[in-house]
Amino acid sequence: MIREVLDDIVDNNRDLTYDEAYACMDDIMDAKYSDIVVSAFLMCLRMKGETIDEITGLTSSMRDHATQIDYEPENDYLIETCGTGGDTFKTFNVSTAASLIASAAGAKISKHGNRSVSSKFGGADALEALGINIELSPEQVANSIENCNFAFIFAPHYHKATKNVMTVRKELKTHTIFNLIGPISCPSKVTARMTGIYDPDLVETIARVSMNLGVKRGMIVHGFDNEGNPAMDEISNIGKTKVAFIDNGDVEVKYITPEDFGLDYANPEDITAPDSPEEHLQIIYDIIDNKTDTNADVARMNLALMNSASILYCTEKVESLKEGVEVSRKLIEDGSVRKQLDEIVKYSNM
């Protein structure tokens, strides 16, 4: 299919239909074409600008080529929490801390990701350092989510066919559609989503793609810095955050601030990524152990609380973002999050 549509994309800037996009990803996953042809296709899509139908078709094919996880929680959402990476302001590993907190509050989390790519300490790196087994089978994923509300889905084990495009992505060294569809191609039956995007102009697009893929509730976010510049693939506590709220077929795009969570703005230097994995790990432990001795401790805590609150809001565990912060804080203070980490370690290693 790539050969059939490539000239039309180049000459006429034509958008692909869902079926055409699906077939093109089939070609890539099945290694039907050379790296030169695939790279030309990816860059033509980027230059044209990928549409909702194209992203949906490409992602659907990539998910269908993955090893499937046949698990659906009864009468509850299954939420994926991740970020695209590729942002300019590097924070500590916020999504990992937030996921641990939110899972302690009852949110069933299917966290899909890889080792560090654009950050100093990625989600897989952090979870592994915490003692959590990241290389789970589909059966282990289902068992862990069912019993302790959390499992990590290590992308390379589930998306084996993506090896066919690995060389192209490494050689191009620039954003392609894979930077967007990787985080939203989780092979579990996700019905809610809390996803950070590297480009604020894409939050509504990815929200609509997510709905096409079966998401009922969610927040697609991009955080800005203290000077109003696009900055991070997560909710920000140093500036505003652009959010596309998904609610059962509707999408509403608006800006939120720390005040919507009942919290104060932070100084940028207090939430930046530390230099070493050991420091990253200590920040996560400090948060779940309720360390708030310094301004930096409080800023990091609040950022984790904001992101945890958003997960709880997406899964309807709370009715507001402020309530999500209150619930999350209480679970840290009474030791529930620390106990939750122990449970996740236990079930991930069964």
Protein architecture, described:
- The chain is built from 15 helices and eight strands.
- The protein has 350 residues and is α/β, with parallel strands linked by helices.
- Strands 1, 2, 3, 4, 5, 6, 7 and 8 form an eight-stranded mixed sheet that branches.
- The protein is globular and about 60 Å long.
- The N and C termini lie far apart (43 Å).
Multimer state: single chain
Percentage of helical residues? 40-55%
Low-confidence stretches: none
Please give the largest β-sheet. Answer: 8 strands, mixed
In total, the number of strands is 8
Query: CA-to-CA gap between the ends?
Result: 43 Å
Topology order in helix (H) and strand (E) letters:
HHHHEHEHHEHHHEHEEEEHHHH
Envelope shape: globular
SS-based class:
alpha/beta
Strand content range:
5-15%
How confident overall, as mean pLDDT? 94
- What is Rg? 19 Å
Number of helices: 15
Summarize the entry for a quick read.
Helix content is 47%, strand content 13%.
Write the SSE topology.
Elements: H1 2-12, H2 18-29, H3 35-48, H4 52-65, E1 78-83, H5 94-104, E2 108-113, H6 123-129, H7 138-148, E3 150-154, H8 155-158, H9 166-172, H10 177-181, E4 192-196, H11 203-212, E5 217-224, E6 230-232, E7 241-247, E8 250-256, H12 277-288, H13 295-314, H14 321-333, H15 336-348
Parallel strand pairs: 1-2, 1-4, 2-3, 4-5
Antiparallel strand pairs: 5-6, 5-7, 7-8
Helix pairs in contact: 1-3, 2-4, 3-9, 4-11, 5-13, 5-15, 7-15, 13-14
